[in-house]
Design brief:
Distance between the termini: 33 Å
Radius of gyration: 16 Å
Number of domains: 1
CATH class: Mainly Beta
Shape: globular
Oligomer: single chain
Number of strands: 14
Helix content: 10-25%
């Protein structure tokens, strides 16, 4: 698949996942190897990939009244075709990859250390690159674009190069893609 088709499918799946923001969404792989999102646990004939629970972070717009963006964060893909969002975690500047395939916000270990985010519980993660150890954490404040979230669940991943803005945050927003731009806004 081309980058545009993959991005379109990711946004389409994100739109479907947003419908279940009240409960848990399960990400499964069917017998043909395709990813599917559903609100019930994966059936025995499909492989569970991951799940995420209802949102726990509170979202607010951090804009000053009258700001030109009107609560819409517009980003363009960079040379790689990926969308990147500038932001901060606990005041530490960073650039996230907007990743609809990531179940949760994921941070490289060194970046988590610099932002004073510590491990809560050790976990084993299954990714597209295989299994790896990591840990759960909570980000006190996460900001991207005009949006500020508090007490955001995250994972700390030792071999990660770039922080990922995952579905536990993205499912709380309306995401549209048009003319090569991604527009992220608060849900009504």
């Amino acid at each position: 698949m081309g980058a545009k088709t993959t991005a379109f499918l990711s946004v389409a799946l994100l739109s479907c996942a947003g419908a279940w923001a009240e409960g848990t969404v399960y990400k499964c792989r069917n017998q043909q190897g395709n990813l599917i999102y559903q609100e019930s646990p994966c059936r025995q004939d499909v492989l569970p990939v991951s799940s995420w629970a209802a949102r726990t972070a509170s979202v607010q717009s951090d804009e000053e009244p009258g700001t030109p963006s009107n609560g819409i964060y517009v980003i363009k893909p960079r040379g790689s075709g990926h969308y990147f969002a500038d932001g901060t975690i606990n005041g530490k500047p960073l650039t996230f990859i907007v990743d609809t395939g990531a179940s949760a916000v994921s941070l490289p270990r060194q970046l988590a250390f610099l932002a004073r985010i510590s491990c809560k519980e050790q976990i084993q993660m299954h990714t597209a690159n295989g299994s790896t150890g990591g840990c759960t954490a909570v980000i006190s404040t996460l900001k991207f674009g005009p949006f500020l979230l508090k007490n955001v669940p995250a994972t700390i991943v030792p071999n990660l190069d770039q922080p990922l803005l995952g579905m536990n945050v993205l499912q709380q927003f309306r995401i549209e893609q048009d003319n090569g731009e991604m527009r992220i806004s608060l849900r009504n």
